[in-house]
Design brief:
About 5% of the residues lie in helices and about 35% in strands. The relative contact order is 0.14. It is mainly β. The protein has one domain: Jelly Rolls.
Length: about 300
């Protein structure tokens, strides 16, 4: 009906003289494309062209990637939170490194697995995040898993965090064979020589929850580093970290904060030795003596 009316109107215009009027074009039907959805790249998909780092090559190669990798260090400002998610179940361990530019560090580290499920969490305090950075290995079996790091310090105290699933430090054979039992409510101390630059700390249970407090002391009641740890299964998710112990008088103190029904197994051994340390007394500066000196 519409096409017939347009033809009649065009014939009337053709009969009119003195008017330069163009006829109306007849409507044409244009093909309509079917709607489509564009899905962006996802980290940790099950597609074979992706790996759990988000690399489309199938093999993680930092030299061939132009974008910022997921395991690069990030700055977390005070009172802020950052998360790292791993969807692939093949990621069974991740290494978390925290440090500062010399200021104190106060942060919470949590492992999320599913909604409202936190199988592992810890509170970390460092007196100096540059001299004694924090280095811990988190067990992440049965993905997907998310690592959440919250800087609970002030705005003036940012921290640098790095979470990686590559080149993870593992406990030595000596550490795996040097376990001692710490009953619930008890504590144990491990003193170290000044030549020890860092130590390995490994805690586990027989499948029960793990609650402990790990302290690095240098002098009487002088805490250089404090870790408050909770793990819902100390056998499935043992705790392993490397603590820097520069200087002399370093003591590792481990307190089992759980009841007596929940013992834990601890192993603390040296990780690196500094053979160039000198035991000679060093006097720096000028010394002035006034008055007679009598033997």
């Amino acid at each position: 009906m519409t096409n017939k009316l347009i033809k009649i109107f065009n014939l009337m215009l053709m009969g009119a003289n003195g008017f330069n009027i163009k006829p109306f074009p007849s409507p044409t039907t244009k093909p309509v494309n079917s709607p489509f959805m564009k899905i962006g790249d996802q980290v940790g998909t099950n597609d074979s062209k992706y790996n759990y780092y988000g690399s489309r090559t199938g093999i993680f190669d930092p030299s061939k990637s132009n974008s910022k990798q997921i395991d690069d260090p990030f700055i977390i400002q005070g009172k802020s939170l950052r998360t790292w998610s791993y969807r692939s179940p093949y990621v069974e361990q991740v290494q978390v490194e925290l440090k500062t530019d010399g200021r104190p560090l106060d942060s919470d580290i949590e492992l999320w697995q599913g909604p409202d499920n936190t199988p592992c969490k810890m509170r970390v305090y460092l007196e100096n995040g540059k001299i004694r950075p924090f280095n811990v290995i988190l067990e992440t079996p049965r993905g997907p898993n998310t690592i959440a790091i919250r800087n609970i310090g002030q705005v003036e105290f940012p921290i640098t965090a790095r979470v990686s699933a590559n080149n993870i430090d593992n406990p030595s054979a000596e550490c795996l064979s040097s376990f001692t039992v710490i009953q619930g409510g008890a504590l144990r101390t491990y003193p170290f020589s000044p030549v020890v630059d860092s130590v390995q700390v490994l805690l586990k249970t027989d499948g029960r929850p793990l609650n402990s407090r790990i302290e690095l002391l240098q002098g009487p009641n002088n805490n250089k580093q404090v870790i408050e740890l909770y793990t819902e299964d100390g056998c499935d998710r043992p705790f392993f970290c490397i603590i820097n112990t520069p200087g002399s008088g370093n003591v590792i103190r481990i307190v089992n904060t759980a009841p007596i029904e929940f013992p834990l197994y601890s192993s603390v051994v040296p990780n690196s030795i500094n053979h160039d340390i000198s035991y000679e007394a060093k006097i720096s500066g000028d010394v002035f003596m006034e008055g007679p000196f009598v033997y």
